[in-house]
Every structure is written in structure tokens, then in C-alpha cells.
Amino acid sequence: MIIKAFAKINLTLDITGILPGGYHALRSVMAPVSLCDEITLEKSDKTEFFCNVESISTPDNLCVRAANAFLQKANITGGVVIKLQKNIPFPAGLGGGSSDAAAVLRGMNELYGNPLTNGDLFALASSLGSDIPFCLLGKPALCEGRGEILTPLKDVPIFTVVIAIGDGRLPTPEVFKKYDSMNLPVRNDTDNFISALGNGIKEDIVASMGNAFTSVAEVLAPETKTLRDEMLSCGALASHLSGSGPSVYGIFKNQDQGIKAAEALKAKGYSAYVCETLN
Ligand code: C5P
């Protein structure tokens, strides 16, 4: 079985408080994009994991943890051979690892004749990571709580997206910690975005995208600001950090403009990918 595991971008990201346990309460509209990893799953009597990127070919990879969690919950003594072709840059704020884990859960359930309900799969996803339930859903959604409370959003338009990333690193826990120390005003991008969706005016939807981590990322990785400015000077209608970064996305009018922008960004030494939001 071959499955695609799609990256995500955060069209909005607000932080509304701290949850019991120390996690942050989020309100974020996420959308899957066509940039994807490819996963091959084969039933086997033991679990093995292979990946084209050596640094993540480890037994604690989220794919292996997802496979083991599935097998345990479904009371299956067999295993699975997982081959991961990694195309989504990481760590980047693009949910690549989360999407791989979600694809393993969904794929293994199918491979083993659907022993688990959708509810079981979402509970497993939530126990493995905050973004994994969204990846399991695979559609634009408002993500609240830790990220696991999902409201699907039907009206998110298909956008041409360029995703770019430099060499900097932004570990997620560090970004949350820095956010806490900066005492920033609470943003309300998400409510504005959802109102704009309701009105169906594309310009307003694009104008209300945003990310509460923007200024945090600019302190920890100033390159994210440069990259957003580069996107805008290449004609992006909007450009924001995805998740906790360091990847940045730009929304473009059409694919031609996206391709030109990606070429210009690559010529400046960035990795750049043209894709589109999925709905
Ligand atoms: O859930 P996940 O493993 O993806 O989270 C990684 C880290 O990001 C957590 O350890 C935590 O520091 C931070 N986080 C948070 N609040 C969230 C999601 C993640 O503080 N809602």
C-alpha cells in the first residue's frame, strides 16, 4: 500500500492561554497542502522502518511509534514494514512528521481490515502529538485546545502556495518558551479569518492570515523576516510563518507567479516548493 502524507500550513495561529499541563491553548486554521511525503506499508510479522533520510531512520521515529500504538490498541501480534520517502522539509512547522504518523495510523487500519474505529484513531493520534489529529482529518479545519479539537472548514479556497525555508532551526518547545517570555498582546487573526471565510471575499481571507509566533521567530531566527519580505517582493499576496517555523509560506495569485517566485528564492539559496492548499 502506498499513501501520500501531506504537509500543512497554518493560515492563522493565535495563542489564547495556557492549558493545565503547560501546553498552550491554540486557535489555528490549518490547511493541508499538496507537498507530500510518500509512505509504503506492507504487512509483516515484525515492524521495520526505512527512510531515505538517515538522520530520522531511527526506532523512535513517530511512524514507528504510531505503528506500535496501532498494533497495541488493535491487539495485533504482527507488524508492518514502513518505507518513508521524505520530501517535506523538517523540522519546519509544516507538520511533516505528524502527517507521516497519521498516514501510518490510517494505512495500517486499512491494511489490517479496519479493526479500529475513527474515534480510536483520533484518540491514538492525539496521544502521539498535537498536530496529528488534524493530519488524520486531512482537510482545512479550525484547530483548538492543544490543536486536537477540530472543526472542519468547508469554504477555504484553493490557494497557490510557495513554501520556503532557510538554514535556521526553530525547535517548537523553544518557540513556545520564548513566546511566554515576550508577553505579546493576544492576536485574533482566527476570528477575522473565519468571518472573512463566511463572507467569501478572497482578498479579505488572504488579508486576515497571520501567526502569533511571527515576532518570536524574528528574534530567534531573523532570516524568517527576510524570507517573508522576499516573498512579498516576489509578488506574494500575503506571507507568514507556518506553525512555529522556520518555514515561511507565500500566497500567490496563480501557479505561474508561484513558480517564478520559487525560482527567485532558490537563486537566493533558499529551498522553495510550489504547491496548493487542498480542500
Ligand atoms: O504535541 P507536540 O509533541 O507536537 O508538541 C511539541 C511541543 O510543543 C510540546 O512539548 C510543547 O512544548 C509545545 N506545545 C505547546 N502547546 C501546544 C502544542 C505544542 O506548548 N498546543
Given the C-alpha coordinates, what overall shape results? globular
Query: What is the structural class?
Result: alpha+beta
Oligomer: single chain
Order of helices and strands: EEEEHEHHHEEEHHHEHHEEHE
Low-confidence stretches: none
Mean pLDDT: 96
Q: Which percent bin holds the helix content?
A: 25-40%
Rg, Cα atoms, Å: 18 Å
Ligands bound to this protein structure? cytidine-5'-monophosphate
Can you walk me through this structure?
The chain has 279 residues and is an alpha+beta fold. Helices cover 37% and strands 29% of the residues. The strands form two sheets. Strands 1, 2, 3, 4, 5, 6, 7 and 9 form an eight-stranded mixed beta sheet that branches. The chain has a four-stranded antiparallel beta sheet with strand order 10-11-8-12, with helices on one face. A hairpin with a 3-residue loop joins strand 6 and strand 7 (149-152). The protein starts with a strand and ends with a strand. The model has no long low-confidence stretch (mean pLDDT 96).
Describe the structure in brief:
The chain is α+β, with helices and mostly antiparallel strands.
Summary keywords:
279 residues; eight-stranded mixed sheet; four-stranded antiparallel sheet; 10 helices; binds cytidine-5'-monophosphate; alpha+beta
Explain the layout of strands and helices:
Layout lengths: L1 E9 L1 E7 L5 E21 L3 E4 L10 H12 L5 E7 L10 H16 L6 H11 L3 H6 L3 E5 L3 E4 L7 E6 L6 H11 L6 H11 L2 H6 L2 E2 L2 H7 L2 H11 L4 E4 L6 E5 L2 H13 L3 E6 L3
Parallel strand pairs: 2-9, 4-5
Antiparallel strand pairs: 1-3, 2-3, 3-5, 3-6, 6-7, 8-11, 8-12, 10-11
Helix pairs in contact: 1-2, 1-3, 2-3
Bound molecules: cytidine-5'-monophosphate.
